[in-house]
Amino acid sequence: MKTKALLLSVIAIFALTTIQAGIAPKSEIKNPKTDPATLVQIAFSKISQNYSTTENQINAFYKERVIRNNDCVSVNEAILNINKSPYKGWKRDLVAVKDVRGNCDFSKIDTLMIKLQGGPISALELDVVKTPFLGTELQDIKDKYEFEYLEPVEMFGKPFYVVAFDQKYKGEEVLFKGKIYIDSKSSAIGKIEFSMNVQNNSDSYKLFLKRKPKKSNVNMMSADYVVNYREYNGQWYLDYTTSDITFYVETNKNVPADIYSISSQLAVTSLIADKFSIDKKDLLKSTDILADKIGDFKVASKWDIYNLIMLLAINY
Length: 316
Hints:
Elements: E1 4-9, H1 36-45, H2 47-50, E2 56-68, E3 71-84, E4 94-104, E5 112-117, H3 120-125, H4 141-144, E6 145-155, E7 158-167, E8 176-183, E9 189-196, E10 217-232, E11 235-250, E12 258-270, H5 303-314
Parallel strand pairs: 1-5
Antiparallel strand pairs: 2-3, 2-12, 3-4, 6-7, 7-8, 8-9, 9-10, 10-11, 11-12
């Protein structure tokens, strides 16, 4: 039987994860008297004060996995050069693949091959501090979302307020729920954990899949994200992003549905990289598929080190 390719984009959400940092200890500070929605608006209004307003060059390590029914089907990894655009304005990040490797276990592929489109581009677009706020304009968040304070926590040696949010009206519009960690002193956003409310919405798969196989049913099970930031010299920068998307594909009512899990992680390995230039022909596009570029690059010799850096970053 001929294998069909199914393209998936993790970022049809504008915009991660079952892999989360350890539980932060409670903080001794108390929540402010400001209502939580207003505190979120204040935090986003201070982006130009708390985050870099100039372009900077960074290095990053990216990894993506496709899992079918608990079996790993493919793993792709890439070392990246990134021109990170300022947090003020709408200039996009520019990405070039410095090196890449990957493997695919074709013995675990039946009739459907999943390919992740966008890859590192999608992972960078999860930097939601640049595009507030999760499906709505900042001034309208009280109309779309409900907010409440959770207990403050300690992270990075600092006290953070924790604001939980959820979509106010569940219906045809698919929005998010999650938690925002806001530095109590500067109002900088240090971390955002969020999930798309894909459950009980039969059309939510259309936000992710470029196309689905004919005569099949596709249903989203979950879409979870984490974005973490790092403070350096009084400003905050992107540290890592993770994405975990799970859905099932039913091609035959007499056969159990296949459950697919797509995960991606991007960790900044050098916040101030050695100066590099990116040729236009080497720019990664949102339509590119990393798996299709494996043969174009040499295999790096330090992949284990990059994997260790990522592991330490997302579990810090």
